[in-house]
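ARCHIVE RECORD
Type: protein–small molecule complex
Small molecule: heme C
Source of inputs: curated submission
Record status: active
Notes field left blank by submitter.
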Amino acid sequence: MKAKLRQSIGLGLLAATLVLTAFGLSSIAQTVPPATPVAAPPAPIPFAAANLTPLGARALAANCAACHGTNGNSAGGAIPGLAGMNKEYFLNQLKAFKEGKREATVMHQIAKGYSDAESAAIADFFAAQKK
Ligand code: HEC
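STRUCTURE (tokenized, with ligand):
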């Protein structure tokens, strides 16, 4: 008799625990916010097109000023000036740097940073600069 009572109390406690656990879990489930749909990543900014405007080419060419001087007028020494440089020669040098056909200390890396269209825009900019 005692054993049966203990057994039914035990079962009652187990049932209560299960019910409470179920309620507990369902209340946790309700507090988790619903997954928000992830927006598609924005389209890449077409900056290359802006680089090909006259101001864009000038901005690109400004990256060369630290070594080749303002508007391609080098201070002399080891780094050649770019002002007034023939466009074809200029582009051939950049291509040779890119392809590793002309030995370089830094230009083989720098040249790789510009597309053909950007290089041409930079070449036009420097060709138009006075020495
Ligand atoms: C960190 C310094 C540095 C920067 C920045 C730099 N150059 Fe140069 N450039 C050189 C050096 C040094 C040489 C000689 C080759 C070598 O050693 O890499 C050279 C050579 C050149 C030549 C060949 C000139 C000739 O008379 O044959 C061209 C063309 C050129 N650079 C274009 C550019 C352009 C365009 C940029 C900017 C987009 C640029 N450089 C940025 C250092 C630089």
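CURATOR ANNOTATION: The first helix runs from residue 2 to 31.
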